[in-house]
Design brief:
The protein has eleven helices and 13 strands. The chain is α/β, with parallel strands linked by helices. It has a single domain, classed as Thiolase/Chalcone synthase (Peroxisomal Thiolase, Chain A, domain 1). 36% of the residues lie in helices and 21% in strands. Strand 12 and strand 13 form a beta hairpin. Bound molecules: coenzyme A. The site of coenzyme A has 20 residues, from helix 2 and helix 7. Coenzyme A (COA) binds next to helix 2 and helix 7.
């Protein structure tokens, strides 16, 4: 059997319209635009409104990615939603997305590797494609971190923002696509960045609410030190695994957490900042969504074109870190005539309503127990 390759054939992003600037934050906590920008590079971030959720942003980003790939949602066989801010503990946010986009033949599950999640998910989908387990996969990074931020904690609330980004990965005999990946973790540092309450260890209680343990807790300095080290390591390792050198890399797309972390990584790699994608000034840290959002903007700006090699590299809670090396190709020739995911979404809604109705009628006829 000839080898299969996993190409990125579609991409899309979605961010809330509402902008929260550093000056806006300075009205809430004791901080300033000057402090935030000089320490992080962030100027503003997007905040979800009450109608927007992790799933709704994911669906918007997915729809755009399917449109770019000209792929019918019914042809998807796998949906991975990477998120640390799921709609519920269960069901998985990926199943909500599956229902809303009408991906009737797809398995769907969530993946939690915090800010490294998108890199993990791209690797998982590409391995499934290469081993014949999948042909058309949808990978989404989506977050509504604003719902888990303590807006009284100036150490954390200045950093995060909401948003989503998605890739479609498809099988092809043409060489290219995801060439190598590196995934790493070190659970001994789990306490450095966490949301302690709300899981089975510390279920939500009056005490946990009072102590604010349902919010993001972070040791910023330790995370900073860890990040600068692992971004360099993971990039080198994935480039080496693909038998390439840094000279072959046209664009580095790092997790958008902090300008100083990104600059330190570029210095460590002896790699020019002009070839590093940075857009955190406008979105802050959107966790697992930051890499696909940066990739979509790089593509829009013509900074990533077919034939280019790019490295996606991330770090985050867990601790986790990792990288993918991708030879960019772009959309494959469409297998069906032009598709309009927005139209399928309307059909998906009707299908979903009918499926619920069928379940009710069956329950009525056969009884519920
Ligand atoms: N505005 C004004 N002052 C602030 C502040 C804010 N928003 N947040 C903290 N400070 C103060 C601190 O209280 C401290 O004051 P002190 O010296 O009187 O105690 C001082 O600024 C310096 O704090 P420090 O934590 O040393 O700042 P820093 O230079 O390390 O920057 C971070 C803080 C959070 C920006 C930085 O550590 C960081 O980016 N870490 C990585 C975080 C990250 O990326 N997390 C996500 C991982 S996916």
């Amino acid at each position: 059997m000839s080898p299969r390759y996993a190409h990125i054939t579609g991409w899309g992003m979605a961010v809330p319209e509402e902008i929260l600037t550093n000056d806006d934050l300075a009205k809430i906590v004791d901080t300033s635009d000057e402090w935030i920008f000089s320490r992080t590079g962030i100027r503003e971030r997007r905040i979800a409104n009450s109608d927007q959720t992790t799933a709704s942003l994911a669906v918007e980003a997915a729809q755009r990615a399917l449109e770019v790939a000209s792929l019918h949602p019914g042809d998807l066989d796998m949906i991975i939603v990477s998120t640390s801010t799921p709609e519920f503990i269960f069901p998985a946010t990926a199943c909500i997305v599956q229902d809303r986009i009408g991906a009737v033949k797809a398995g769907a599950f969530d993946l939690l590797a915090a800010c490294t999640g998108f890199v993990y998910a791209v690797n998982l989908a590409s391995q499934a494609i290469k081993s014949n387990g999948s042909t058309n996969a949808l990978v989404i990074g989506s977050e509504t971190l604003s719902r888990f931020v303590n807006w009284k904690d100036r150490n954390t609330c200045i950093l995060f923002g909401d948003g989503a980004g998605a890739f479609v990965l498809q099988a092809s005999d043409e060489p290219g696509g995801v060439l190598s990946s590196v995934l790493r973790s070190d659970g001994s540092g789990g306490n450095l960045l966490s949301v302690p309450a709300g899981g089975s260890r510390f279920p939500v209680s009056m005490q946990s609410l009072y102590d604010g343990l349902h919010y993001i807790q972070m040791n910023g300095r330790e995370v900073f030190r860890f990040a600068t080290r692992v971004l360099t390591e993971a990039t080198y390792e994935t480039v080496e695994a693909a038998n390439l050198t840094m000279d072959d890399i046209n664009l580095l797309i790092p997790h958008q957490a902090n300008q100083r972390i990104i600059e330190a990584a570029a210095r460590g790699l002896n790699y020019p900042m002009e070839k590093v994608m940075v857009n955190l000034d406008r979105y802050g840290n959107t966790s697992t969504a930051s890499i696909p959002i940066a990739a979509v903007e790089a593509l829009d700006q013509g900074r990533l074109t077919p034939g280019d090699h790019t490295v996606l590299v991330a770090f985050g809670a867990g601790l986790t870190w990792g990288a993918n090396l991708i030879k960019w190709t772009g959309p494959l020739p469409p297998t069906r005539r032009k598709v309009s995911p927005a139209v399928y979404r309307r059909f998906a809604r009707i299908r979903s309503i009918l499926a619920r109705l069928r379940r009710r009628i069956e329950g009525f006829i056969w009884g519920n127990g």
